[in-house]
Amino acid sequence: MACGNCGAVLDAADPEHQLIAQYEANRVAPGIPLGTRGTIGGQTYEVIGYLVRKVVKEPYTWSEYLLHNPIHGQRWLVEYHGHWTLTRLAPGVPKVKKKVARYEEVDYRHFQTAKAELVAVVGEFPWTPRIGEKAVVEDYIAPPRMLSVERSQQESTWSTAEHVEGAVVWKAFGLPGRPPTRIGVGAAQPSPYAGVGRPMFLLFSSFLALAVLVQLVFAVFSQQRLVADLNGEYRPGTSDAAQVISEPFALSGRTSNVMVEISTNAANSWVYFTLTLVNEDTGVAKTFGREVGLYSGRDSDGFWSEGANWDRAYLPSVVSGSYVLLVEPEGPHAMHWRVRLTRDVPRPLWLWLALGALLLPPAIFLWRRAAFENQRWSESDQASSDGDDD
Amino acid sequence: MVKAYVVFGGLVLAALTWTHYTGWGPSDVTEQKVKSVRNNPGSYRSAYGGRSYTGAK
Predict the structure, then answer these.
(1) pLDDT bucket at A19, cuts 50 / 70 / 90
(2) Closest of A61, A27, A67, A65 to residue A45, by C-alpha
């Protein structure tokens, strides 16, 4: 029994209540006062003891509350940086192999091993606690559960724990104010991303399949009809093919795009095309420019080439009607050119953009899940290891 | 998160369908009203006509 006021530790088994030790420098005030009763984990407990332990030669400190129920025995409520776990003795001994502890058909990954030291104590305990008492503690986790073993010179004690929200603890014991603010990610804190990975993957797969299906449907049912095919010889400084106008052609069907394909025999030269699609019914002219240029040669590194002597563009949302196409090439050298217009062509670019957009949320999800687990494992002995809770 | 993704994915698929159906797309097309080109081809000059292009190499 340790007194919170004077720091005295008495032997309750001794009728004389002999003073065993006095630790005035280690007096502490538990966040949950001794004697407080509360219902947690479906059972009513009374807080009868409180102790503070720290990792030897490290600044890591945590608190443990001893809870007592006359029928159900004892539990420990452990708090570290605002993260709480409810602990009880484990019946049976887990099997440990290659840093994995298997207990009740659940695999727990090794989280950390530390030498812990008792630094403060108050209340009643089933043993006589002594300041400076040391034990090696090993933690294994399978969030929201944790498995711990405490090894001293005399014995090894296994216990199982389950994560409890601080708000639940505060409500259970009817405590005023708010629980301590959480810092970082608790060892046994359940990931908000746990169990979401599979639905996200299934959704992405479904969306991917649907996007490809949409593309295929439009690839099959779109017109993709060649409506104009012009060609000419261009000679700079002359009127030869300086401006070519097509015969009228019809763009039919719903409002859709027109694909423009330009090909030339330009070599080590460029050509700029001014193209105008004129709707004869409305008099509206759509004018746009495209440039092609191909350069190649040989140097000390061998053959090189740059650019292309062809081009492809899409005119968006062209209404149906009777049209003519005006082609005006311009460039430094003579060359042969050809311009073809195809009505209603599904652009592959939209599929790629859609796939990119669909991939974004799963990518963000994976990144955030990894960041959460990295934060959890940064407190462990295996800080470089990445957790996977799915 | 999953519900938000369902909504987002649905919107992306709807946008994909809509762009394919309407042929929508960004463009730098200049639109203007002209007189009949067929009856008088020389009467129309494009919006780019008259300027001298000096791009490329």
Answers:
(1) low
(2) A67
Flag if A285 and B22 touch (Cβ within 8 Å): no
Give the Cα separation of A55 and A223 in Å (integer).
74
Contact A270 B57 (CB under 8 A): yes
Contact state of A287 with B46 under an 8 Å Cβ cutoff:
yes
Check CB contact of A380 with chain B, cutoff 8 Å: no
User: What is the predicted ipTM?
Assistant: 0.76
Both tokens of residue A138?
């090993």
Longest Cα–Cα distance in chain B: 62
Cα-Cα end-to-end distance for chain A = 44
Helix axes B2-22, A197-221, angle to 10 degrees: 10
What's the pLDDT tens digit per position in A155-172? 889 999 999 999 999 999
Mutation site, B28, B37, B57, interface A, largest A CB count within 10 A: B37
Whether residue B45 has pLDDT greater than 80: no
Q: pLDDT tens for residues A300-332?
A: 999 999 999 999 999 999 999 999 999 999 999
**B3: which chain A residues are within 8 Å (Cβ-Cβ)?**
none
User: A90-141 pLDDT, tens per residue?
Assistant: 988 899 998 999 999 999 999 999 999 999 999 999 888 889 989 999 999 9
